From TrEMBL:
Top-level class of the enzyme under EC nomenclature: hydrolase
GO cellular component: beta-galactosidase complex
Domain Beta-galactosidase trimerisation: 409-609
Catalytic residues identified in the record: 163, 320
UniProt cross-references to Gene3D superfamilies, sorted A to Z: 3.40.50.880, Glycosidases (3.20.20.80), Golgi alpha-mannosidase II (2.60.40.1180)
Domain of life of the organism encoding this protein: Bacteria
Gene Ontology MF terms: beta-galactosidase activity
Annotated protein name in UniProt: Beta-galactosidase
InterPro entries assigned to the protein according to its UniProt record, in alphabetical order: Beta_galactosidase_C, Beta_galactosidase_Trimer, Class_I_gatase-like, GH, Glyco_hydro_42, Glyco_hydro_42_N, Glyco_hydro_b
Species in which this protein is naturally found: uncultured Microbacterium sp
Binding site for substrate: 124, 162, 328
Length: 696
């Protein structure tokens, strides 16, 4: 690729991350290896079809071995070597892990945990996001790197820091306290407004001076919920400020090269509201690590789906995943046969135009020596490397997919980071409920029904969705309430569940009975939550089972139908699942934790009225996940086998990857994905159902 500004801009604007080809590669850490290995790396990268690497992510100590003393010789050499081999570079600003000299000179940049512990150097990311001293050093490094490489022909993107906030997001230091107060002054303007928002009349917490306010450090008992929520928002914003500061330096020196930072849109990272970061990158990139076991595939689909919708349907960059095991769970199992390719292609289905791994060559030393890589400890004559080479070929065949967008589904599953934070707070009716589990339960129920759904950030428009599923949507503002009411008024459908609509944006309870802000929409009033004890189960009349949570519904409006009732315990006979009808629209309320199986039956019931819930795949029984991307002149249908058995489908298009045609049918191997290309005329549910009719 030439580096003239126009072309680069187009690269971003069209979302054509691969400029007509899928990007494929890894984090590359050549500073961990002697020169002779570099040559071997180039040969093996070519063999695998690697065409991009992320470089210098953790190289600060090599690039600036002493304050202000630079050593770029090795980076010059590897940049040139990569370019000679046709491999492009997503070049890091190298600021993720400060070198030992920096924290020796300035121990005051080290972050402080909630209980006052100062984190030491010796791992990585040991810096306070709000430290002015750290910021100065980081921006100086960013500037020097940008000036040196802005014109390098291998450079295709800037990689700002790395997984910002992964280990240092919640910093409770005095720097954080100062920055928190400024953030609060901007938000509230007056202390009266802050005192009101935080409910400081409780427990004598009223503030008379801004300087009295601290981060919510360890305290004798339950800390102020409004303060905790604002500190969480502040912390997500503070790390974003660091992103903005580095981005500004890059924009000044290298305005035409797109900038990104790798998000962590995944089940183990809830602290960052990525919906508020999207505007600060030229293209979205994400890291995702497979959860081992049966739920892993659907978990991957869920987060990839959210990533695609954070990117507003445009192509995004899968910056990291693992070829096989990670090294940070309690038991780190290798991927099963087929999973390496399946996982990559599932991300591609959800909009990734780049498939990259952490990391190219498995490290010999250091904390991640047992984390898989594209080239494992065993070397290239290995199962993993053979899969890596095969994936390279499959991605090559998927070149026509690049630049295409996700095709919008007709069902949305709302996702709200702040409801995740707040519903999981201490001092709640139960600590046994989990937002992410509840939301994923409904998503998996839709997959089970063969229904394509978009996992949608709550701030995105849901005007074009026929069904909006909003599980445990805990925080509902007046504005969000109105948007949900509009859905039903328009003749569309809302489904929501327990512990939704309970609080406002300050975690203050809406009065008059639960589900608070959604009481009118749903036409029910709940007087008391009735969480269940460990092991306790309550049967519903339909045969569904409630665990962890039930509620006492005491009022049901005249236009509300009771669909299911509690069948034992103190609530026996009381409504459990209700549906209010407004014209052709409906608002369904599920007051209990009935799990994925219960969710599936509720959705199946609604499907009598709602075609969008009847499934995209004829007779699929949920065995396939159907994902669709749509390009200028073709449609790409990804059929991912969710089972461990082969599945035969009637194919309505040309097979781009993942299987050989056998006449008019195709077989999808266990855990396999096939990608069909069809004409644009085959848009809409019915033709797709023909495209992917499951035969057996
Ligand atoms: C994160 C980091 C990588 C690496 C991987 C290991 O995603 O960005 O540097 O540590 O985790 O899984
Ligand atoms: C104690 C305290 C009260 C209140 C209750 C709650 O009794 O004195 O202020 O916190 O616990 O159970």
């Amino acid at each position: 690729m030439t580096m003239d500004g126009g072309q680069t801009r187009r690269w971003v604007k069209d979302g054509a991350l691969g400029a007509g080809r899928m990007r494929y590669g890894a984090d590359y850490n050549p500073e961990q290896w002697p020169r002779e290995v570099w040559r071997d790396d180039m040969r093996l990268m070519r063999e695998a079809g690697v065409n991009v690497v992320s470089l210098a992510i953790f190289s600060w100590a090599h690039l600036e071995p002493r304050p202000g003393e630079w050593d770029f010789a090795w980076l010059d050499e590897i940049m040139d070597l990569l370019h000679e081999h046709g491999i492009d570079v997503d070049l890091a600003t190298a600021t993720a892990s400060p070198p030992p000299w920096l924290t020796r000179l300035h121990p005051e940049v080290l972050p402080q945990t909630v209980d006052g512990t100062i984190l030491s150097p010796g791992a990585r990311q040991h810096w306070r996001p709000t430290s002015p001293i750290f910021r100065d050093y980081a921006l100086r490094l960013t500037r020097v790197i940008a000036e040196r490489y802005a014109q390098h022909p291998a450079l295709v993107a800037w990689h700002i820091s790395n997984e910002l906030g992964c280990h240092n997001l919640y910093d409770f230091s005095d720097d954080a306290a100062r920055a928190f107060r400024i953030w609060l002054q901007e938000r509230y303007a007056t202390l009266d407004a802050l005192n009101d928002a935080w409910g400081t009349a409780f427990w004598s917490q009223r503030y008379s001076e801004w300087d009295e306010i601290l981060p919510p450090r360890v305290a004798p008992t339950q800390r102020n919920p409004g303060q905790q929520l604002d500190f969480e928002r502040f912390s997500s914003d503070a790390v974003r400020d660091h992103l903005r500061a580095e981005a500004a330096v890059l924009a000044e020196i290298s305005p035409n090269v797109p900038r990104t930072t790798n998000f962590m849109v995944a089940g183990n990272v809830r602290e960052i509201d990525y919906a508020s970061w999207v505007g600060d990158v030229d293209f979205v990139s994400n890291d995702h690590y497979l959860v081992p076991g049966p739920a892993g595939r659907d978990d991957l689909s869920f987060w990839a789906n959210l990533t695609g919708n954070l990117a507003a349907g445009r192509p995004w960059f899968l910056m990291e995943h693992a070829t096989s095991a990670v090294n940070w769970r309690s038991a780190n199992t290798p991927k099963r046969p087929g999973e390496l390719i399946r996982d990559a292609l599932t991300h591609v289905g959800h909009g990734a135009d780049a498939v990259c791994y952490f990391q190219w060559r498995q490290s010999r030393a250091g904390g991640e020596r047992y984390h898989s890589g594209m080239v494992p400890h065993a070397g290239p004559d290995s199962r993993v490397f053979r899969d890596v080479v095969q994936l390279g070929a499959e991605l090559d065949a998927l070149a026509p997919v690049t630049g295409s967008h996700r095709e919008q589904a007709r069902v949305a599953v709302l996702f709200d980071y702040e409801s995740w934070w707040v519903s999981g707070r201490d001092s709640h009716p139960s600590d046994r409920i989990a937002y992410d589990v509840e939301v994923q339960g409904w998503y998996r129920a839709l997959l089970d029904l063969g229904v394509r759904a978009d996992v949608l950030p709550v701030g995105a428009s849901f005007d074009d969705y026929e069904v909006v599923v909003a599980p445990m949507l805990h925080i509902v503002t007046d504005e969000l309430r109105a948007r949900l009411e509009d859905v039903v008024r328009d003749g569309r459908h809302v489904v929501t569940t327990y512990f939704s609509g309970i609080v406002d944006e300050h975690d203050r309870v809406w009065l008059g009975g639960y589900p608070g802000a959604l009481r009118d929409l749903l036409g029910v009033t709940v007087e008391e939550f009735v969480p269940l004890l460990p092991g306790e189960r309550i049967a519903l009349a339909s045969g569904a089972t409630a665990s962890t949570w039930t509620e006492r519904i005491t009022r049901v409006d005249h236009d509300v139908e009771v669909l299911d009732a509690y069948a034992d315990g103190d609530l026996s006979g009381a409504p459990a699942v209700t549906r209010r009808r407004v014209g052709t629209g409906t608002a369904t309320y599920v007051s209990a934790d009935i799990g994925r199986d219960g969710a599936r039956e509720v959705l199946r019931g609604l499907a009598d009225d709602v075609a969008a819930l009847r499934g995209d795949v004829r007779a699929a029984r949920g065995d396939l996940e159907v994902i669709v991307r749509i390009g200028a002149d073709a449609r790409f249908v990804f059929l991912a086998n969710r089972t461990d058995e082969p599945i035969t489908v009637a194919r309505g298009g040309e097979i781009l990857s993942g299987g050989e045609p056998i006449g008019d049918i195709a077989e999808i191997p266990p855990r396999g994905v096939i990608v069909l290309q069809t004409g644009l005329e085959q848009v809409g549910t019915a033709p797709l159902r023909e495209t992917a009719a499951v035969l057996g």
